[in-house]
Amino acid sequence: MDHDGTVDHDGSVDHEAVFHAAYDAVLRRWPADVHSVDVPTSPYGTTRVQICGRQDGAPVVLLPGGGATSVVWFANVKDLAAAHRVYAVDLIGDIGRSVHDGAPLRGAGDLVAWLDSLFDELGLDGAHLCGHSYGAWIALNYALHAPRRLGRLALLDPTNCFTGMRPRYLMHGLPTLLRPTAERIRAFHRWETGRDPEDPVWRAFLDSTAGARRSKVVAMRRPKARDLRACTVPALVLLAERSRAHDARRAAAAARRLLPETGVVTLPDASHHSLPTERPAELNRLLAEFLA
Known about the structure:
This protein is α/β, with parallel strands linked by helices.
């Protein structure tokens, strides 16, 4: 390999090394006090968690969208950490530094059992839970499974929670899952947001995800209406007005109808993939107000 470990002796690119280098470059944008831990989450494997913020702050657990990893919160974590103890998670089964070498992930039930194990190991009863996209779907399922373990629930442009995803979004996204390349990932982001990512370090990270390994991203089944109506966790649903993943107006109406204790806010001109990296000031303010 070369000096940075990204090229093998035969000249081929070590894609996993490229991904890890890009991951670490984004993590260097985080507050200086961040530290990474590998948490045993039996029976599924180990879970990488980035921890930072006030030792005496109320815990906030952050679940990223699919293919984004814990480092995606680089533009949000400084503000969140000023008042909270932040736990940002690499999703089990997805790309990142969590290691899924145990029991298979067959559906939402396994993901909520995985989070139960994580909460047990880190002593997170009473934590607030915040997720984006696929991470929001996991967070909502966890709130339905274990409402007494949570303080508040923040869902950022949640997919397949209140309405289905648009077929065009799925069609555009499928090639990046089946045969990912940096060019396909860029094209998908550009189609959804209307432009390339503004931050060059984040842009390089997204390119690098084409060569990252994942074991199992669980198919998202929408929660049943009766289960949503029974949810007792105070919730904030934050929607992106220009999201191409779903119809934001329909999702907002369904969230208000189905979740009894919820506030719904739509961010003007925001896209699904631009949260949380490109609208941090508004997002951070809304989360700070909700989690206070």
